[in-house]
Amino acid sequence: MTEEARRRQGTAYGFLAYLLWGAFPLYFHLLRPSGPWEILAHRIVWTLLLCGAVLLLRRDLGWLAELARHPRRLGGVALAGALIATNWALYTWAVLSGHVTEAALGYFLNPLVTVALGVLILREQLRPLQWAAVATGTVAAVYLTVDYGTPPWISFGLAASFATYSLLKNRLGGSLSALQSLTGESLVILPVAVVILLALQQSDGTTFLGHGTGHTLLLLSTGVATAVPLLLFAAAASRVPLSTVGLLQFLTPFLQLLSGVLLLGETVPASRWVGFGLVWLALLVLSVDMVRQVSHARVARRATGTG
C-alpha cells in the first residue's frame, strides 16, 4: 500500500470514529429509560467483555501479568480508568438531562484545555498563535460564565476530564495498544460497575430485563459503541498526520451541537452563540498553527533528505 493510500485509509477511519462519537447523543437517548449510572455500568461491563474476548481469541493476555508487575504503570491505568469513567458518566448525564449543547461546548474546549495543561504540567513553551488561541478561549470561558450566570460546569468538567485523560495517556506512552489499554482501564473500574448494578438491583431501578428485548440488546451494544470508535481512532492516528487528526476531532462536537439544537429540541440563546463563536475562533487559530507547524516540519525533512 502506498503512503498516499495509507493516509486516505487513515482519514476514513478517523472520519468514521468522530462520526460515531458525534452520534452518541442520539444513541444515548435510545437507551432510555436507563439512567446515566446504569448506562455507565453496562458500558464498563460490556466493553470489558468484548475487548477481553478479542484479546482471548488473539491469545494476547500476557500483558496483564506484566502490567501487574509494574505498580506505577498499573496506577496510571487505574487513574486513566477513573478519569474516562468520570467523563462517560458526566457526558451521559448531560445528554439525558437535556444539556447536549453544553456537552458539545466541552469537547470544543477540550483542545484548548489540553494545550493549557501542557503549559502548566509539562512546562511546554507555546508559540504565538497558541497563546492567542488560549487567550481567546479564556475570554470565551469568562463570557460564557457571565452569560450562564454560573460557570458552565458540564462543559468544563468534560473538557478537563478528557484533557487530563489524554495527558495521562501521553505520559504512559505506547506501553499498551489501544485495545489493551481500554481493557485494562475497564478492568480496574469494573468494581464500580458491579456496585452500581447491585445498588440498582436492590432498589429495583435496573431496566436491563424489564423493557423488552430491544432495550436489552441496546444496553448490550454499549460495549461495541465504546470500543469500535476508539479502535478506529487508533487506526487513524497511526496512519495520518497529527494535524489531520486534530482537524477531524472538531467533527464530533459540531455533530453533537447539531443533534442538540435540530433533533433534540434544545434552545441556545443568541447571546450564547457569541461564546461559541469565540471558542470557534480560538480553535481556528489553533488549527492554523497546527497546520503551519506540520507544513514547516515537512519542508524541513525534505531539505535534510529525511522526508
TrEMBL record:
<keyword id="KW-0813">Transport</keyword>
<protein>
    <submittedName>
        <fullName>Protein RarD</fullName>
    </submittedName>
</protein>
<feature type="transmembrane region" description="Helical">
    <location>
        <begin position="77"/>
        <end position="98"/>
    </location>
</feature>
<dbReference type="InterPro" id="IPR037185">
    <property type="entry name" value="EmrE-like"/>
</dbReference>
<keyword id="KW-1003">Cell membrane</keyword>
<feature type="transmembrane region" description="Helical">
    <location>
        <begin position="212"/>
        <end position="233"/>
    </location>
</feature>
<feature type="domain" description="EamA">
    <location>
        <begin position="10"/>
        <end position="144"/>
    </location>
</feature>
<dbReference type="InterPro" id="IPR000620">
    <property type="entry name" value="EamA_dom"/>
</dbReference>
<keyword id="KW-0812">Transmembrane</keyword>
<dbReference type="Pfam" id="PF00892">
    <property type="entry name" value="EamA"/>
</dbReference>
<feature type="transmembrane region" description="Helical">
    <location>
        <begin position="104"/>
        <end position="122"/>
    </location>
</feature>
<feature type="transmembrane region" description="Helical">
    <location>
        <begin position="245"/>
        <end position="264"/>
    </location>
</feature>
<feature type="transmembrane region" description="Helical">
    <location>
        <begin position="270"/>
        <end position="291"/>
    </location>
</feature>
<dbReference type="GO" id="GO:0005886">
    <property type="term" value="C:plasma membrane"/>
</dbReference>
<feature type="domain" description="EamA">
    <location>
        <begin position="156"/>
        <end position="287"/>
    </location>
</feature>
<feature type="transmembrane region" description="Helical">
    <location>
        <begin position="129"/>
        <end position="146"/>
    </location>
</feature>
<feature type="transmembrane region" description="Helical">
    <location>
        <begin position="40"/>
        <end position="57"/>
    </location>
</feature>
<feature type="transmembrane region" description="Helical">
    <location>
        <begin position="12"/>
        <end position="28"/>
    </location>
</feature>
<feature type="transmembrane region" description="Helical">
    <location>
        <begin position="180"/>
        <end position="200"/>
    </location>
</feature>
<comment type="similarity">
    <text>Belongs to the EamA transporter family.</text>
</comment>
<keyword id="KW-1133">Transmembrane helix</keyword>
<keyword id="KW-0472">Membrane</keyword>
<dbReference type="InterPro" id="IPR004626">
    <property type="entry name" value="RarD"/>
</dbReference>
<feature type="transmembrane region" description="Helical">
    <location>
        <begin position="152"/>
        <end position="168"/>
    </location>
</feature>
